[in-house]
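Researcher: Predict the fold of GNAT family N-acetyltransferase.
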Amino acid sequence: MESPIKLLLVQARQDYLPYLLLADETVEIINEYINDGELYAIVYNQQTIGVCLFTFPTPYTVEVKNFAIQPENQGQGLGKRVMSCAFQLYKERGFEDMVVGTANSSIANLAFYQKTGFRMDGIIKDFFARYPEPLYEDGIRALDMIRFRRKLIYERKLDRSIK
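Model: Structure tokens for GNAT family N-acetyltransferase follow.
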């Protein structure tokens, strides 16, 4: 039987900065959003292996602002299990969509989000150009943010009763 993945809401956010830095390499940028939304520690086999920070850009949309799993725990399907937990959590809370953005250079992330059911939704040109130092992944400079969206609720139930 697989060990369960747990998402535990945390309060002492600065304690999780090393995990946040796995997904966003710039402390200055992380400090712009570290106190927003809900930060969860990802716990597997009684060990914290990563974090997931969710923000709420609209009343019905949840955004994956930062999602990171330690490199030694990657490639085992744990990220997909975390996303599945997150989809269920926010669907139960009435959110309709989940969105996420990643760099044009993040080839593994581009594949990951599509494998977990996200669809490309837009591009924010030059998003990463504002970072203090240029970022490179797989030999590609991170300049644009690729936005993804996944529907959590496909149809809002409307009260159509006649009063």
